[in-house]
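Figure 2 data, in text form.
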Amino acid sequence: MKRASGILMHITSLPGEFGIGTFGKEAYDFIDFLVETKQTYWQILPLTTTSYGDSPYQSFSAVAGNTNLIDFNKLVDAGYLSPADFAGVTFSHADNQVDYALLFEARRPILEKAVANFLASQEGVKLLADFEAEQSTWLQDYAEFMSLKEHFGLKALQEWDDQKAIYRDEETLASYREELKDAILYHKVVQLFFFSQWQELKTYANEKGIAIIGDMPIYVSADSVEVWTQSDLFKLDDAKQPLCIAGCPPDDFSDVGQLWGNPIYNWDYHAETGYKWWIYRIQESFKLYDYLRIDHFKGFSDFWEIPAGEETAINGKWVSGPNIDLFNAIKAELGDLPIIAEDLGYIDDKAKKLLADAAFPGMKILEFGFYDVTGQSIDIPHVYTQNSVAYVGTHDNEVANGWYDNLDEEQQAFVDAYTNRKEDESVTQMMLRELFSTVSNTAIASMQDVLDLPAESRMNIPNTLGGNWVWRMTKDDLKQEHKDYLLKITELYARGTQEDDN
């Protein structure tokens, strides 16, 4: 990755009229803002569907897209809706927060109208046939899974009322395909809407010189189409219940560790099949993104395996992962790929070796470097390397203002001295300046810090449920002074490389 910079801002956090950020006008405006300030990258969180808890890291599918991101105005432009179809509908009670429960009720009837209008046209029928052919590896299974899930009252896969449906009895599934054919069609068409709108947006970004950094969770949900259709990929019992689940041991985020609940992969099976599912998953990801951040890279060297039924992650154990064999198989099939490794948390010699063997850039978090006031932290900026991606913090960290406020006086004094903070310089300006001045080839600023927002704008608090993933910027948040400062440090520290490329 060349010396450049970008912004971390998920689609859901964009402003707009539909209660959540979408692929509509505001997304295009955001790209224009990136161009105006000479950024190179737009980093987002996973685009896959979200499940209980609204986390983009817990998805019903490793491939299917989050239909909350479909923009209604673009469906109007395509002729599938009219403005009257959503006039007067309440999508949010606060401009700066997403209300997922409200969206769940408000969006579906509107999308159903769009789907009906789409299918009533000859063009729509043809587009769907083409889309089904292009997405044949996953679309039918996903549409059936979601239709059955709705049929069984949105229960998790393992709790469906019909055991034969859980076990994929073919005669049973054939019966449901007929009974639920309208719902299956609905789920196919909204995926078509999602992918067509996203590809149009991504094309606009690329044409403007903006590359998309996407995000791939290492795990999939226990309540997912992959667990339902490809059980051999995971360590499950006969009822498709996980025998062990993923998480991480006690750390700075939690004294009892983190209990993620995802099923653990059956790595022996993956090795026997030449890691073909992983090759497929990576390949599908690069259809959506220009660069790919792989979450929890540590889990490929060794991972924290927790017996199913545990209430905390304390009683887990470290188990060896596939290591470089996986990435050698991916490279042999797909060639060298622009991958970023999320190598945060407990990084031991095994994890360091895997990162070195894979030669992917790792991640550096400025906030982590200043807790130790001796300057000896492994995260202090003066030990960064060029082959890295630096952040003030990620979606899992506090925003700069909240982080600084929670430091003690000695730590604050150390930060101010280390960064040579000026008297008239805000905390966010200080940290962004330090970020952009690092030797790391890539610097990614969170939008909350660019906007100088308070602690309440934090995106996620790990190991908590509720109140996460809801932050949105408002149309009035971005002021000229924010653009001017971002452009200033981008040019000052030689990260505004777009002009060289054009």
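Caption note: The chain has a mean pLDDT of 95.
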